[in-house]
Structure formats: C-alpha cells, structure tokens
Specification:
By secondary structure, the chain is an alpha/beta fold. A seven-stranded mixed β-sheet has the order 3-2-1-4-5-7-6, sandwiched between helices. It binds S-adenosylmethionine. The site of S-adenosylmethionine has 20 residues, from helix 4, strand 2 and helix 6.
C-alpha cells in the first residue's frame, strides 16, 4: 500500500523516532505560509533520510529541490563531523523563507543553500558526491539522474523521491501529463541501466534507491 490509512500511519509515527521540535515548527510554518506544502518530506520520510545518511556516511550530499528545507535538515542531521550538504532550489522566491530555517538550525555550518537550476550550477562546482537526493521537477528526473551520476563516486547512492507518483505510474498518462510521463520514463530508464543497482521502496510516494556500481 502506498499510503497507509490514517490509523496505520499514526501507529507508524508513534513507533519511530520523533521529529525534533525544530522540524515540527518548520513543517507547521511550511503549511501556514507556502503553496503546495505537501511537497515537504515530513516525519516518516525525514527519519528515513536521516537514517540513510547514517548508513551511507557520505562526505558530500547533493540535494536537488530544497523547497522549505525539511528534507535538507533531515539529511544534514545524519551527517558525521566532516559531512556537508549542498542543496539547490530553482525558485528564488523560496529563499526568504528557507534560508533562515537553515541558518538558525543546529546544522547551519553543514549546509550550503544555492538558489538556481541544479542542472546548471552543480557541474560548475567541481564536487564529487557520495549521495544525491533527487526531488526537483518530475519532468527532468532523467537529466538530474545523468548529471548526478556523472558527479557521483563509484559506490555512491542516488535516492529519487516520488517515483511511484501516487500510483499513477500504473496508468497510461494523458499526453499533457508531463510529470507522470517523466516519472515513468525515469523508472524505465533506471530499471534498464546496468551501471547501477536499484530498488524501489513503496514508502510515502515511492523512493528509488540507486547505487553506482564500483
Ligand atoms: C518536492 S519539492 C522539494 C521538497 C523537499 N526536498 C522536501 O522533501 O522537503 C521540489 C522543489 O524542487 C524545486 N526545483 C524544481 N526544479 C529544480 C531545479 N532544476 N533545480 C533546483 N530546484 C528545482 C522546486 O522549485 C520545488 O521547490
């Protein structure tokens, strides 16, 4: 089941690590002040992202699609002493909301927040990443994937969000439903890509975990 019913979801949230008060306040502020607040990762996925970071122990993380900063703070929370997060947001109107949430957090010195198109800015950085979290425009997932893969160390991981797209991947999309078309094309592309290992987790809206072969 993609979305557990409300009582099962409550049960899950009661039996996993709680969110910090800071993340709770950010989630609330996201819902009060921003359009499309459901884009924020939230409690379960946030704890999952933090745990992935603790498992992978990356030095450098790339995030494409910052939005309000919820997932970014969870990724940063899992980082070790030398770890660093580079997070990119294309919408410059997001900066006034998100930057203070990063700067006032316990992880301010571990996060660099860039405003601009990750597809243009990341190649200019000259950084090799150990982990990339893809959560931007669903129509561009194959481009994010190829760009991230080319800046990923062998053995590094890519986590792609929303890859089950509320179950719409099972449907034949309308010709103008570019997001569903994009996600389906991405899943087909990665599914056949022998350069990587991959699994899809039916968590929230679908998370694909991809490992670049050594
Ligand atoms: C689903 S939201 C991100 C949610 C956030 N990662 C979280 O889980 O809390 C997607 C964001 O990606 C941004 N975006 C879209 N295309 C982008 C690009 N090429 N580079 C950077 N950000 C992009 C959008 O403006 C939007 O704010």
């Amino acid at each position: 089941m993609l979305t557990p019913d409300a009582s099962l979801e409550t049960y899950i949230l009661e039996h996993i690590d709680p969110e910090s008060d800071y993340l709770k306040a950010l989630y609330r502020d996201t819902h009060v002040k921003l359009l499309r607040p459901r884009m924020a990762s939230g409690h379960l996925q946030g704890r999952m992202l933090k745990m992935f970071v603790e498992m992978i122990r990356p030095r450098q993380i790339l995030e494409i699609g910052t939005f309000s900063g919820y997932s970014g703070l969870c990724l940063a929370e899992g980082l070790g002493e030398n770890g660093f997060l580079h997070t990119f947001e294309i919408n410059d109107e997001q900066e006034d909301f998100t930057r203070p949430w990063f700067e006032n957090s316990a992880y301010a010195d571990k996060i660099k927040f860039y405003i601009g198109d990750a597809l243009e800015l990341v190649p200019e950085l000259g950084i090799t990443f150990d982990l990339a979290f893809l959560d931007g425009d669903k129509r561009k997932y194959i481009e994010y994937y190829e760009m991230s893969l080319s800046h990923l160390l062998p053995g590094g991981y890519i986590i792609a969000d929303n890859t089950l797209w509320d179950g719409h991947v099972l449907e034949e999309p309308n010709s103008n439903d570019y997001q569903t078309i994009g996600i389906k094309a991405f899943n087909d592309y990665v599914g056949k890509d022998m350069r990587v290992e991959k699994v899809i987790l039916p968590l929230r809206d679908g998370l694909t975990i991809i490992r670049k072969k050594a």
